[in-house]
Amino acid sequence: MTYSVTVRDHMMIAHSLAGEAFGPAQRLHGATYVVDATFRAPALDADGVVVDIGRAADALHGILAALSYRNLDEEPEFAGVNTTTERLCSVIAERLVLAVRTDGLGGGGVSGIVVTMRESHIAWASFEVEL
Amino acid sequence: MTYSVTVRDHMMIAHSLAGEAFGPAQRLHGATYVVDATFRAPALDADGVVVDIGRAADALHGILAALSYRNLDEEPEFAGVNTTTERLCSVIAERLVLAVRTDGLGGGGVSGIVVTMRESHIAWASFEVEL
Amino acid sequence: MTYSVTVRDHMMIAHSLAGEAFGPAQRLHGATYVVDATFRAPALDADGVVVDIGRAADALHGILAALSYRNLDEEPEFAGVNTTTERLCSVIAERLVLAVRTDGLGGGGVSGIVVTMRESHIAWASFEVEL
Amino acid sequence: MTYSVTVRDHMMIAHSLAGEAFGPAQRLHGATYVVDATFRAPALDADGVVVDIGRAADALHGILAALSYRNLDEEPEFAGVNTTTERLCSVIAERLVLAVRTDGLGGGGVSGIVVTMRESHIAWASFEVEL
Amino acid sequence: MTYSVTVRDHMMIAHSLAGEAFGPAQRLHGATYVVDATFRAPALDADGVVVDIGRAADALHGILAALSYRNLDEEPEFAGVNTTTERLCSVIAERLVLAVRTDGLGGGGVSGIVVTMRESHIAWASFEVEL
Amino acid sequence: MTYSVTVRDHMMIAHSLAGEAFGPAQRLHGATYVVDATFRAPALDADGVVVDIGRAADALHGILAALSYRNLDEEPEFAGVNTTTERLCSVIAERLVLAVRTDGLGGGGVSGIVVTMRESHIAWASFEVEL
Known about the structure:
The structure is a homohexamer.
Chain A: E1 2-15, E2 29-41, H1 53-65, H2 85-102, E3 112-120, E4 123-130
Antiparallel strand pairs in A: 1-2, 2-3, 3-4
Helix pairs in contact in A: 1-2
């Protein structure tokens, strides 16, 4: 028995991907990611929610704003790793975990987080973690 | 190994949400919920389906019709609780469980139900239960 | 030869509709409207845009915020008229026209506005006006 | 902790469904299936991906091309079974499992596959298998 | 200044397309068409609508039901013509025009009809006619 | 009386936008554009189509491939202009016009072209030209 709430936002970045397998995506290009952050819980709180949806949306927006409108190839935190969609999902999910653990988002009730990033109408990735 | 079938319908209701966290949503307002009901099963029946899709759609439609075009603040069954999206998901899921258990929807094969309600293009909730 | 830019936002309201034709929608209920505002122009400005997309989104958001989380049946401006989706489209469009004409949104280049409001996954309405 | 990558493609087929429960769908008709193939893995490979997305898309496309633009009622492999959406999901998933196991798609890291087929805006099915 | 209202429904058919340009679609196959019917009017009626949305949805549903779950290659009305998406749009639009003209749908106010048929996530067609 | 056919594809690019109005988008970033190309015609050809959909999709794909996975800031053809979504729409539309005029796409019947580029779930632009 699991409840979940999802909020959607987006970010636009530039990057390149290293490795022959990426073909033309080895060149500097970019992407819009439509980002869905899902918060899971086994029960609702006293207000009847999994998480305050306004605070959840703000937390996601803050995390995306710190990444948005940047060339990820030049961000020190991504030095030496490919900023693939699946990796970015885990980066954003880990930051949401932090918001849950240290900022009290969800008031202790959140048991899992899923981040899905849609990079086009025909491809997306996700990362799912239990707390 | 899990099969699933999902049918989509919608409902439109009025309500208000009690609690400071809800901000302007404490006022009477309303929502369209696009509702997805998913039926899961470990195997297909003799017809090759999880559930008769016509009967599943009818069951969902009947449940939604009983809630639609109403002010949920005035419905006795919701007295004292917030009709948040996540709670409404569980209300609808429990009624589908009943349809599975007592009306024979799915012919005994259904092992789980998920209800997802989309309240806008940027927010949705779900409730998932195993049978 | 026409350029256009569209921004999407949403609002949630309660209302009822008077007239037998509306059936159960004569009862107090509500809706989420996903609202698309389109600005048309025959040419781009010096920045290469139809309208500053940030200002367009802000204008739409402000107009929707003034209507959101309300029971439209109790708003004096809608006394005696049905707040159907098509009428709400024209209300929002007229306010966008005002933003174009008096606030300088679009810098004089906007030649038309379209507002589309999606009330569910199976129904929407729009209003289109030339300036 | 699970990563996933999904690619989308589609196929168009004719078929009929045997059994009274199918009503008018017992007649020869057809469908467009928008097909989502999801690959899951507990970790990323050295390139930072779950699976080479180009190879995944090609594998899915090849599997769909072998079924597309056909009358499934006349295909020997479907003799005596109903080609329901849920069954077609499992057929495609099993072929993707083969691509993972024998063609090396995913380089040994793929731990699960999900195939979802959308047959209209109000109905879809899926099949999920662990490797 | 134009108002419009759109309702969505769908149909599933089998057919083949004659002509080398159609490649594999020359074989018998099928499609799901998600069908959007738009009614346009220069003004709203006394109820504040372009058309009674319930009657519009019923009119569309009846037209689609007469075509659904059939092999269009065997329907006398389509003998000798290709039932391409764009042609089917015009067939459905002409029947809606009839509903407007002879059944009084829209009460005399409808000035135009558009039918859009989505045959997959990457292709659609439409037909637009003024009354 | 107008028929139309639309095909969808996408491209991913990096770029920056010059001008204070663009705020953080003045930094190098990128976008996925989901691109819809619409071909309009007053009548169908002998095959019953507006345009050979396979050739239309190929023409669009070729135009997008020439722009994809690039940093548009470094492309000589865009020197000194902002590659806003609305401008990119017109660039792609003009190339489709060329395909219609010089490559015979549409066999002389195409009377208009519309290109719509979706840059996120909340913003898109389009360019429409008559031939």
